[in-house]
């Protein structure tokens, strides 16, 4: 069973940059992946941030695209998220997720437990 | 952008009831739709993929149907452990979006 674990700072200053890492266990990303980041503001619904394909293609939520970069480091088996110019409205639980290995469908079968990020001075 | 309109936003039903949630896409997404269950404080869990396919290990009382712009998620016989918020998610055209969610409670 694939496992994902997010890590990063719980507190980010306004206008600062968020850097989160998702470490994948029990599966090698070098074998292929479809993964993504999703966030959830307190008491709100799910918001897609972006997705990465093994081909190297990345796609982002148009409303966040100008501030977001996602990448995969297969040597460390990690998925990363960087979000610039953070503001209070970006306070949320951030989830990394991925599709089942070698699955033809684009669904998020596996999820991390989530990382709470608070934007505050 | 494709907008997903999910309804109702909340519902209350009795144990054993049939529960139906609908999701409407702002344009044709064929069958590129998934359904997730999220319990409080937990990550979402995939229940249905490609509109009607039951994820391995998910009880058969959960089902999905639809194509194009209109989709339905059904719980045939609500159980106490089904208390959660349910989300539809489309993945047409390489971009993803979620519905607003439906909170299911026991009456």
Tell me the layout of helices and strands.
The complex is a heterodimer of chains A (121) and B (107).
Chain A: E1 3-7, E2 11-12, E3 18-25, E4 34-40, E5 46-53, E6 58-60, E7 68-73, E8 78-83, E9 92-98, E10 110-111, E11 115-119
Parallel strand pairs in A: 2-11
Antiparallel strand pairs in A: 1-3, 3-8, 4-5, 4-9, 5-6, 7-8, 9-10, 9-11
Chain B: E1 4-7, E2 10-13, E3 18-25, E4 33-38, E5 45-49, E6 53-54, E7 62-67, E8 70-76, E9 84-90, E10 97-98, E11 102-106
Q: How would you describe this structure in keywords?
A:
heterodimer; A: 121 residues; mainly beta; seven-stranded mixed beta sheet; four-stranded antiparallel beta sheet; 49% strand; B: 107 residues; 11 strands; 0% helix; globular
Describe the structure.
The complex is a heterodimer of chains A (121) and B (107). Chain A is mainly beta. Chain A has no helices and eleven strands. In chain A, the strands form two sheets. In chain A, strands 2, 4, 5, 6, 9, 10 and 11 form a seven-stranded mixed β-sheet that branches. In chain A, strands 1-3-8-7 form a four-stranded antiparallel β-sheet, with no helix packed on it. In chain A, strand 5 (46-53) and strand 6 form a beta hairpin. The model of chain A has no long low-confidence stretch (mean pLDDT 96). By secondary structure, chain B is mainly β. Chain B is built from no helices and eleven strands. Chain B has strands spanning 4-7, 10-13, 18-25, 33-38, 45-49, 53-54, 62-67, 70-76, 84-90, 97-98, 102-106. In chain B, strands 2, 4, 5, 6, 9, 10 and 11 form a seven-stranded mixed β-sheet that branches. A four-stranded antiparallel β-sheet of chain B has the order 1-3-8-7, with no helix packed on it. Chain B is globular, with a radius of gyration of 13 Å. The mean pLDDT of chain B is 97. The chains are: A mainly beta (121), B mainly beta (107).
């Amino acid at each position: 069973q694939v496992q994902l674990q997010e890590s990063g700072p719980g507190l980010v200053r306004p206008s600062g940059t968020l850097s989160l890492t998702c470490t994948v266990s029990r599966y090698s990303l070098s074998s292929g992946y479809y993964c993504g980041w999703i966030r959830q503001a307190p008491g709100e619904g799910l918001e897609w941030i972006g997705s990465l394909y093994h081909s190297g293609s990345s796609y982002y939520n148009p409303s966040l695209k100008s501030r977001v970069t996602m990448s995969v480091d297969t040597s460390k088996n990690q998925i990363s998220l960087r979000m610039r110019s953070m503001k209070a409205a970006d306070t949320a639980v951030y989830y990394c997720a991925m599709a089942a290995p070698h699955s033809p469908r684009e669904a998020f079968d596996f999820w991390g437990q989530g990382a709470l990020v608070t934007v505050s001075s | 952008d494709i907008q997903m309109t999910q309804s109702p936003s909340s519902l209350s039903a009795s144990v054993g009831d049939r529960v139906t949630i609908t999701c409407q896409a702002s344009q044709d997404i064929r069958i590129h739709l998934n359904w997730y269950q999220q319990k409080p404080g937990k990550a979402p869990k995939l229940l249905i993929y490609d509109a009607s396919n039951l994820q391995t290990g998910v009880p058969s009382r959960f089902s999905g149907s639809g194509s194009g712009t209109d989709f339905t998620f059904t719980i045939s016989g609500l159980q106490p452990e089904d208390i959660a918020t349910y989300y539809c998610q489309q993945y047409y055209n390489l971009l993803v979006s979620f519905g607003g969610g439906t909170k299911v409670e026991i009456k």
